[in-house]
Design goal:
It contains 3 helices and 7 strands; from the N terminus they run ββββαβββαα. With 156 residues, the chain is α+β, with helices and mostly antiparallel strands.
Length: 156
């Protein structure tokens, strides 16, 4: 039993600049039918607002989606996001899972992940950059330099 005046030990920060969690997702084809997809969630100190979802399909390079870490965190507990990416928790028979919907030119894929793994990944990211402290880790000079050096996309 802890005395009420005993200070809480803060979560430990890690000196790592990257964390990655390999996981197996289920691509929901239709109700009752899904296909396994090897994937990896990644987080990098250099881009403190973003998470990467690498989907390893039968291609030489993975298909990578980038979206907000806050979106993933919010979607573990409630519906979050609109447009190309949305995240929401499973209910009923799907409780304990998180659904990630990714939309693009060729349609939308819905991926199902174990909520415990997503929560563990988010906890690992928070040891690198605590939620709310992202601005202190953002290198605006490097970001502006990168934006000005990249050639414009065709048609823009």
């Amino acid at each position: 039993m802890t005395h009420p005046e005993t200070p809480r030990v803060p979560d430990q920060r890690t000196p790592a600049e990257i964390c990655a969690m390999p996981l197996e997702l289920q691509a929901v084809v239709c109700p009752g039918l899904s296909v396994s997809v090897a994937a990896c969630l990644r987080y990098e100190l250099a881009e403190p607002y973003a998470v990467y979802l690498d989907n390893h399909v039968d291609l030489d390079e993975p298909i990578t989606w980038v979206f907000a870490r806050d979106l993933l965190a919010a979607g573990v507990d409630a519906w979050a996001g609109m447009g190309d990416v949305s995240v929401h928790p499973g209910v009923g028979a799907s409780a304990g899972t998180v659904f990630i919907a990714l939309g693009g030119e060729n349609g939308t894929v819905v991926l199902r992940a174990e909520a415990a793994l997503v929560r563990a990944f988010l906890a690992a990211t928070e040891r690198i950059v605590p939620f709310g402290s992202e601005p202190r880790h953002l290198d605006l000079d490097a970001l502006l330099l990168r934006l000005f050096e990249e050639p414009p996309e065709p048609g823009r």
